[in-house]
Write a structure and sequence with these properties.
Shape: flat
Strand content: under 5%
Mean pLDDT: 88
Order of helices and strands: HEHEHHHHHH
Number of helices: 8
Low-confidence stretches: none
Distance between the termini: 53 Å
Length: 205
């Protein structure tokens, strides 16, 4: 009885060793590719940023007067106002190396600021919309959420809350659109958002 067990154990060790060696080789190759890409990116000269997709806060389209007396709503509007004259770009999914290769090393600080502005934008939009929804202003919340989705945010709560409001309205075609947008995201959150929408609304697929 001991021999079959020993043989199985030896096979297991052999397969496990091969698996580890293969993974280590893949890791080293990826690391080598990364550092080569990083080396190349550090020698790229400054390039024009004119082709970036700049965003602006559409204050005229937003429910600026709804529940303005609420502290959270008021705070969100103040946050958005701070972005009024700032440049905002969604760079989700791009590494610093990618950005340096595309636009030059000298632009990386500027690009990082644009992306931080975008992060502040979509987080504030989600907070604002969520609060308006809690207060019973579902249509106004949806207006904000729809703009956030238009910018291709990867904040999962934005998609889930928008889908919930669409469900209330019986607008399942718009939930399908949310799914479509989610499926085209360049974000680590993509699969989670897509899976959750499909599981929550199995008839939209």
């Amino acid at each position: 009885m001991k021999f079959p067990f020993l043989a199985s154990f030896i096979v297991f060790i052999f397969v496990f060793t091969l698996y580890n060696r293969r993974n280590e080789k893949i890791r080293k190759n990826r690391e080598k590719e990364y550092w080569e890409k990083e080396r190349q990116s550090n020698s790229v000269r400054r390039k024009s940023l004119d082709d970036l997709e700049y965003l602006s806060v559409p204050f005229l389209d937003f429910p600026m007067e709804t529940a303005i007396e609420d502290e959270i709503v008021s705070s969100c509007i103040s946050e958005l106002d701070s972005l009024r004259d700032e440049k905002i770009v969604n760079l989700t999914g791009f590494t610093n190396t990618d950005l340096k290769l595309a636009y030059g090393t000298a632009n990386i600080t500027q690009l990082s600021q644009y992306d931080q502005n975008y992060t502040l934008l979509v987080r504030t939009l989600q907070k604002w919309a969520s609060r308006l929804y809690e207060l019973g202003y579902h249509d106004d919340a949806l207006t904000i959420l729809e703009y956030a989705v238009l910018t291709r945010t990867d904040i999962s709560a934005t998609y889930y809350l928008a889908a919930s409001i669409y469900q209330e309205k019986g607008q399942y075609d718009k939930i399908r659109h949310l799914l479509f947008v989610a499926e085209t995201l360049q974000s680590a959150m993509k699969n989670t958002i897509v899976r959750t929408l499909k599981e929550s609304y199995p008839d939209i697929g």
